[in-house]
Amino acid sequence: MNRVVITGQGTINALGRNVPETLIAMSNGVCGIGPLEFDNVDRLNIQIGGQIKGYAAQDHFNRSEINLYDPFTQFAVIAAQEAITQSGLNFSEEKLADNTGVVLGTAGGGLQTQDQNYRAVYEAGKNRVHPFVVPRLMNSAAASHISMIHGLRGPGFTVASACASSNHAMGQAYHMIRSGMTQVMLTGGSESMLCFGGIKAWEGLRVMSPDGCRPFCGTRNGMVQGEGAAIFVFEEYSHAKARGADILAEVIGFAMTSDAGDIVTPNKRGAASAISRALRDADVSADDVGYINAHGTATTINDRTECAAIREALGVAADKVMVSSTKAMHGHLIGGTGGVELLAVIAALKDGMIAPTINHRAPDPDCDLDVVPNTARQAKVKVAISNAFAFGGLNAVLALKNP
Amino acid sequence: MSVADTIIEIVAEQAFLKPKDVKPTATLEELGIDSMTLVECIFAIEETFDVQVPFNANDPEASQFDISTIQTIVHAVEGLIAAQKV
Q1: What is the rounded CA–CA span in Å between residue A212 and residue A208?
Q2: Which residue from A224, A183, A229 is spatially nearest to A329, judged by alpha carbons?
Q3: Any residues with CB less than 8 A from the CB of A127 and at least 6 apart, and which?
Q4: Residue extents of the structural domains in chain B
C-alpha cells in the first residue's frame, strides 16, 4: 500500500483569507463569530455566525465566473488555488494531470443559489431564472470547477454525509492514493449556508446558540454556524519525496462507522468505534495520540457523548490527550468543517501549535478531558486524529502523523 | 376550545394518544415524548397560537418555558398569549 502525505493546504473562513492568517488567529484564540449580515437577518432568532466579513466575490472572480460559482464553489476554488500553489505541483504535465483527482465534501452545496432563486420565483413572483441555476447549485459544482481550472483529469466527485462530509471526502482521497488508483488528490470541503433559508432551517431544530459557541463548557447552549472552505493536496509519498516537496503531514489511517441509531442524536458506540478503528488502521496505540481535534459542536449531547466515546476508545490514555474544538473560533462549517479542522491537526503535528477551545468559562463534569481551554499551547505531538460525527450517525475519523 | 384543550390535542396527536389519555399532570416522559417530538410539539404550538416559544433543546431549564408537565406548558403558553395582547 502506498503512503499518503499532504503537500499543500488552502482555506478561506471566518478566521482568515488563507492558511497563515487562519493559523495566527487559531494560535491567538480569536473568535470569528459575530453578528450575521444578510437579507432578512432581522427575521431570525439566531443572528450570529462565523461569516467571512468583507468578502466580495468580485474581488476574486470575473462576472462570468460569478454567474457560475455559488459562494460554496467560490470558497473551494480560492482554497484550492492556495493549496496547489503551496504544493508546487505543475499540472501541465499530462501524466500527472491524468492521475490527479478531486473529491470534496459539502452538505448544502449551492444552497445560496437555491435560496435566491426560490425568492425570485415564489416571493417576487418572477417567471424566469438565470440559465445557470442548475450548474450553480449542484453540490458537485465545486469539484468540477477545481478540475476544470487546473486541468485535473482523474476521478472527481462530491461526498455528502452532513457534518462529516469533509472527513468522508478526505478518507476517499486517502484510500484512492493508498490503493494506487491515483497519485495526487485535491480534497477537503466547502460550505456556504449563511443565508436566511440556511439558518431558518437550523433554527427549527432548536439546537443553535443565540449567544456563542462554547464547546465542552458547562454553560454551553448550542452550535453556531460558520462558512468557508479548506482544501488539501494529498500526494503519494514517493512522488512527493522524488520532487523534494515540503511534506506537511502524513495521513496514516481512516475509519468510518454508522450509529444505526437516530437521525439527530449521536451515540457513543458509533463514535468510539470510528476512533478505535482509525487507530487500528493507522497501526498506532492510544498512547501515541497527542491531540484530538474534536467534533465539539457545543450542543449538550454531542460534547458529552464525544467525551465518553474518547474515553471508551482511548482508555486511560484519554487522561493525557489534548482535545480541542476549534468550532468556537470558526463556527460549524457543516459539510466543510472537517477541512478547516484538519488545518488545526496539521498545525499541531508540524508546528506543535495546539489550537485552544475558546469561550470555556466553566467545567462540565461530563466533559472532563484536557480540552485546552481558552489559550493555545505548544507541545510536541506525534499522532493526531480528527473526529467528525454527523447527523444520521455517520462517523468519520482521520489519523495523521508528523512528517 | 380552551388553550389547555388545544395543547392536549397537539400533544396527543404527536404522542399517538387519545386526548382523554393526556392528563394535565402528565410529564412528557410519561407520555413517551422524546426531544425530537417535543420540538415538533413546540412548532405546532407556535403555529396554532401564533406565538414565539423561547425553547433551546440544549438547555431546556434555562429556556424560561417550563415543560415539566402538560399543566406547566399550558400555563407558559397562556403567558405568551397574554404578553402578546399587551
Answers
A1: 9
A2: A224
A3: A121
A4: 3-85
Supply angle C-alpha A202, A41, A374, rounded to 5: 65
**Total length of chain B:** 86
pLDDT digits (tens, 9 = 90+) for A23-40: 999 999 999 999 999 999
Contact between B43 and B55 (Cβ < 8 Å): no
Q: Hey, is the C-beta of B77 within 8 angstroms of any chain A C-beta? A: no
Q: H helices within A14-70, ranges in order?
A: 19-27, 63-68
A-contacting residues in B 10-39 (Cβ below 8 Å): 35-36, 39
A249-263, A357-371, A377-391, B59-73: least confidently modelled range: B59-73
pLDDT band at residue A88, thresholds of 50, 70 and 90?
Answer: very high
pTM of the model: 0.94
Pick the CATH number of B3-85 from 1.10.10.10, 1.10.1200.10, 3.40.1350.10, 3.90.550.10: 1.10.1200.10
pLDDT confidence tier of residue B1, bands split at 50, 70 and 90: confident
Q: Give, in degrees to the nearest 5, the angle at Cα A231 between A60 and A387.
A: 140
> Confidence band (pLDDT; 50, 70, 90) for B60?
confident
State phi, psi for B9 to the nearest 5 degrees: -65, -45
Q: Which cell is A4 given?
A: 499518503
Active-site residues of A, by number, are: 163, 295, 332
Smallest CA–CA distance from A222 into chain B, residue: B58
In this structure, the strands spanning A353-354 and A377-378 are: antiparallel
Predicted confidence (pLDDT) per residue in A364-403, tens digit: 999 999 999 999 999 999 999 999 999 999 999 999 999 8
Q: What domains sit in chain A, N to C, each tagged with a CATH number? A: 4-242 (3.40.47.10), 253-401 (3.40.47.10)
